[in-house]
Amino acid sequence: MEMNGEERIAAPRQLVWEALNDPDVLRECIPGCQTLEKTSDTEMSATVKIKIGPVAAKFTGDVTLENINAPESYTISGEGKGGIAGFAKGGADVNLVEEGAETVLTYAVNAQVGGKIAQLGSRLIDSTSKKLAGQFFNRFNELVSARAAGT
Q: Using CA of residue 110, residue 116, residue 121, residue 123, what is the dihedral sign?
């Protein structure tokens, strides 16, 4: 599955960059995230509970930040295991471009799922993935824009 998108955030690029590297911000924005802990400067471990169609799963896994070019871009990659539900793995290239007082965040995601979840079909997985990504970026935009506005 591949997915691309863009989000315009009313905040300076440095503030957006800091939020993208803040486990507390990410935990609050990731749908179904139960835990997210920084284990090193470039690694985090997470537990996420999601439902895709009739399958509910709790994924545990690790996330790694690579190709870091602060405060412009990085690649985030990870793999989660959901027991009998299966697994999910993938990555995203994230870029930040300053445009005046705003920051344009673009992303390109590549992900794979296997096991019971993969049997649900690519349409359901793709639509759920797009919905979850939309929820993440909407919440991220709200949080970071509010920080930039000082509220």
A: negative
Length of the chain: 151
pLDDT in tens, 92-150: 999 999 999 999 999 999 989 999 888 888 888 899 888 888 899 999 999 999 999 99
Q: Over range 36-50, report the average pLDDT.
A: 95
Domains of the chain, each with CATH number or no CATH = 2-149 (3.30.530.20)
Amino acid code (one letter) for 1: M
Q: What's the rounded Cα separation, in Å, for the pair 151 and 149?
A: 6
Q: What's the Cα-to-Cα distance from 46 to each of 11, 30, 60, rounded to whole Å?
A: 27, 10, 6
Spatial distance between the Cα atoms of 57 and 49, rounded to a whole number of angstroms: 6
E strand spans, the chain? 2-9, 33-40, 43-52, 55-69, 73-81, 87-99, 102-114
Residue 144, helix vs strand vs coil: helix
